[in-house]
Amino acid sequence: GNSVTQMEGPVTLSEEAFLTINCTYTATGYPSLFWYVQYPGEGLQLLLKATKADDKGSNKGFEATYRKETTSFHLEKGSVQVSDSAVYFCALTMGSGYSTLTFGKGTMLLVSP
Amino acid sequence: DGGITQSPKYLFRKEGQNVTLSCEQNLNHDAMYWYRQDPGQGLRLIYYSQIVNDFQKGDIAEGYSVSREKKESFPLTVTSAQKNPTAFYLCASSIRDGNTEAFFGQGTRLTVV
C-alpha cells in the first residue's frame, strides 16, 4: 500500500533560521504530493502541492520539490517566523481518477523569538 | 464564503452513548471524508463518500457509521462499539480528481467522560 514517512518532531528553531522537514513516500504509480499545515486547535490547510516529478510547489515562503528518483518531497523555508509554529503534514494521493489522501504522522515546528 | 462547517467544536459523551458529529459543505464537492486524529498518529481515514447515497469504509471504520443523504452533508456517528472514541475528528471534502487537494473543517474534539 501507499505510505508517507516524515521526520519526527518537534523541530525547534530560532526565528529567521532555515527549515527543512523531510518527507519520503512509497506508492505504486505516480502520486500527487501535498504539504498541509495545522495550527493549534484547527483543521488542516493546504500549504503547497506538486502533481508530477520535478514540480516545485511554493507558498508563503515554503517550497518543496517532487523528487521521483529519491521518492521525496522535503519542505523548506529560508527564514522561519514565530507564526510558522504549527504541525506540518506530508500527504499523497494517486493522480489518476479518485483517491483518498494518505498522510504522514505530522511534524511539529516550534519557532522561538 | 464557501467552506466546510463542523459542529460542535467540543463534544462530551458518556460511555455507552452514541453521538453524531455534523459536517456540512457548500463547495459543491462530490467527495467527503472523515478522519480521526490522535497525538503522534497523524490522520487516519474512517469513512469516505464519493457520491450521494454511497460510502466506503476507511482504515478504522469499526465503531463508526455514516450517511450521505445529501451532497452537502456527511454526518458521522460514533457508536458505543467504538472502544476508544476520545479524539479530534476532521471532516474534509474534495472534487473527484486525484490531483486536487482536500478542504478541511475546523474539527470536533470528542471526549468520553
Key terms:
heterodimer, A: 113 residues, 6-stranded mixed beta sheet, 51% strand, B: mainly beta, 0% helix
Short overview:
The complex is a heterodimer of chains A (113) and B (113). Chain A is mainly β.
How are the elements arranged and paired?
The complex is a heterodimer of chains A (113) and B (113).
Chain A (H helix, E strand, L loop, with lengths): L2 E4 L4 E4 L4 E3 L1 E4 L4 E8 L5 E7 L5 E4 L2 E4 L9 E3 L8 E9 L7 E2 L3 E6 L1
Parallel strand pairs in A: 2-12
Antiparallel strand pairs in A: 1-4, 3-9, 5-6, 5-10, 7-8, 8-9, 10-11, 10-12
Chain B lengths: L3 E4 L2 E4 L5 E7 L5 E7 L5 E7 L6 E2 L6 E3 L9 E3 L8 E8 L8 E2 L3 E5 L1
Parallel strand pairs in B: 2-11
Antiparallel strand pairs in B: 1-3, 3-8, 4-5, 4-9, 5-6, 7-8, 9-10, 9-11
Residue runs with pLDDT of under 50 for 5 or more positions of chain A: none
Radius of gyration of chain A: 14 Å
Pair with the biggest interface: A-B, 25 and 26 residues
Our count of helices of chain B gives 0
Q: Can you give the helix content of chain B as a percent range?
A: under 10%
Model regions low in confidence, pLDDT < 50 over at least 5 residues of chain B:
none
Question: What does it look like?
Answer:
The complex is a heterodimer of chains A (113) and B (113). Chain A is mostly beta strands. Chain A is built from no helices and 12 strands. Chain A has strands spanning 3-6, 11-14, 19-21, 23-26, 31-38, 44-50, 56-59, 62-65, 75-77, 86-94, 102-103, 107-112. In chain A, the strands form 3 sheets. In chain A, strands 2, 5, 6, 10, 11 and 12 form a 6-stranded mixed sheet that branches. The mean pLDDT of chain A is 93. With 113 residues, chain B is an all-beta fold. Chain B has strands spanning 4-7, 10-13, 19-25, 31-37, 43-49, 56-57, 64-66, 76-78, 87-94, 103-104, 108-112. In chain B, strands 2, 4, 5, 6, 9, 10 and 11 form a 7-stranded mixed sheet that branches. In chain B, strand 5 and strand 6 (56-57) form a beta hairpin. At the A-B interface, strand 5, strand 6 and strand 10 of A face strand 4, strand 5 and strand 10 of B.
